[in-house]
Amino acid sequence: MIKGKVFKFGDDIDTDIIVPATYLSTFDPKELAKHCMEYTNPEFYGEVKQGDVIVAGKNFGCGSSREHAPIAIKGCGVSIVIAKSFARIFYRNALNIGLYILECPDAVDGINAGDTVEVNVDTGVITNVTTGKSWQAAPFPKFIQNIIECGGLINAIKENKFN
Amino acid sequence: MKATMTQQILAKKLGIQATDPALKAGNLVLIEADTALSNDVTAPVAIDVFNKSGCALCDAKKVTFVLDHFTPNRDIQSAKQCKIVRDFAREKGVDNFFDVGTMGIEHALLPEKGIAKPWDVIIGADSHTCTYGALGAFSTGVGSTDIAGIMMSGKIWLKVPSAIRFNLTGKPSPSISGKDVILYIIGKIGVDGALYKSIEFAGEGVKYMTADDRFTICNMAIECGAKNGVFPIDEITDAYTKESCGKTFARFETPDADAYEQTIDIELSSIRPVIAKPHLPSNTQFADELKEDIKIDQVVIGSCTNGRISDLEQAAKVLEGRHVDKNVRTIIIPATNKIYLEALEKGYISTFIKGGAIVSTPTCGPCLGGHMGILASGEVAVTTTNRNFIGRMGAKDSYIYLASPATAMASAIAGKITCADKLED
């Protein structure tokens, strides 16, 4: 079960907002995390805590194919990104590096910054603990959950759990 | 409800019915890939991830490497990249490794070699991997980590795409090629018009689209955001695969209309030569509607989009008995050695050289601003490639117009953008 405080973002959050290109010379999650959302929300890195949740609008992660973007978010300790929709390559990259994501437009509209949200990744149920409302997102099949639990695609294959 | 062609391919691979709820659009499936393709830009990254994993290569037969982007090597860095792939292929016994001498532009080479064929699931670390839908395969572009994943496990996870059906009606005029059709479609639905989705082709007009037309159309599916493009398997496919793999393949069941999210009718007879103006493939116009004279500096005829034999044939027919404008550098790039040889035997190469063009070895080269024809500031090119983004072929203030081979060659002759029908004798 995932539980954390919500940081809310709008539509079309691109990979340059998530981690500006100037910091791409490293793949270190902790280093990338320091610059996550730096240009638009400079306070984000200081405030976000392990297990917190990002809630965003449509087309989250649009722009470049860089895997640094989901790595930076995961490096901040964010447990899941819930958005109305994700850009196709970000969607693949996030799951492949082991970051939970869920698409649920109604939940996005019903969750505000600072709310506490609980997500059951097995069932896809998202609950806004602050307001008591809940929503059903399509849960991930077991092989995707295995990827995330192993910390990414390559680890899951190594541990023989990509099946 | 009969499922989409994409769902039918995925179903066959998974050993389930195409109407199985597991294949509902939006669901995630774990599937066996037939081919994992990468090139000199993306393979070194995949090889690095693979090597660090410590895993064994799942099946060398599934792996295909084509060194096509910066080859013959343009500099020391690209030579190093190629060497990484070459050494790995030799060490691991990868037979489908194509280097200078056997290589061609990957998306022309794989169908020609019979590596890409109907009903296959082909995953490539290159966005134009969607080309093979022309033969009735499922193929799409991914990142290098996914390719490393297939090298380790043989498998890939995919989101089942919803689909848009393009119902082709009418008969195109002889001066219209697959490039005009796909540019027309992209202009109609926009660069994100089919985001995440499959675009599938149907209707009476399909029979007027040759195998080469279909490759061009599916190649540019990504330019309207699509995950893949698919044509039905028919007599045209049969003729192609008899030559490439010595056999023919089972047909798709004709999908029901309600298997699709949307159907868009395309009347082929209404299409005239199309150009896409800077800086998006969707910024299209019929070439004969251009109001002003646009002088050009360079023409490129080639690439994974339009470097096939019928593309060279169309260009040669336009040039025959004429000469390119003295101010236009005209670069012809046959996509594979087989195509090059056929063009030589048919006299096209001689037509090009006598007509003032140059003919290059197969390479992606100028299409992505790599080498073999980079544009300077303020220069204008007409090209048969697939992207006219800012700076794609060189300087960020150069200008790229996308067109068919016939339109590109007509423009080279005129020294300004025009179409073949408007050339004076």
List the helices and strands and how they pair.
The complex is a heterodimer of chains A (163) and B (425).
Chain A: E1 2-8, H1 15-18, H2 29-33, H3 44-47, E2 53-56, H4 68-75, E3 80-83, H5 88-97, E4 100-103, H6 105-109, E5 116-120, E6 125-128, E7 134-136, H7 142-149, H8 153-158
Parallel strand pairs in A: 1-2, 2-3, 3-4
Antiparallel strand pairs in A: 1-5, 5-6, 6-7
Chain B: H1 5-14, E1 28-32, E2 35-39, H2 43-53, E3 63-66, H3 76-92, E4 97-98, H4 106-112, E5 121-124, E6 138-141, H5 144-153, E7 155-159, E8 163-169, H6 178-189, E9 198-202, H7 211-219, E10 228-230, H8 235-245, E11 262-267, E12 274-276, E13 284-286, E14 298-301, H9 303-306, H10 309-319, E15 329-332, H11 337-345, H12 348-354, E16 358-359, E17 380-383, E18 399-402, H13 405-414
Parallel strand pairs in B: 2-3, 2-5, 3-4, 5-6, 8-9, 8-11, 9-10, 14-15, 14-17, 15-16, 17-18
Antiparallel strand pairs in B: 1-7, 12-13
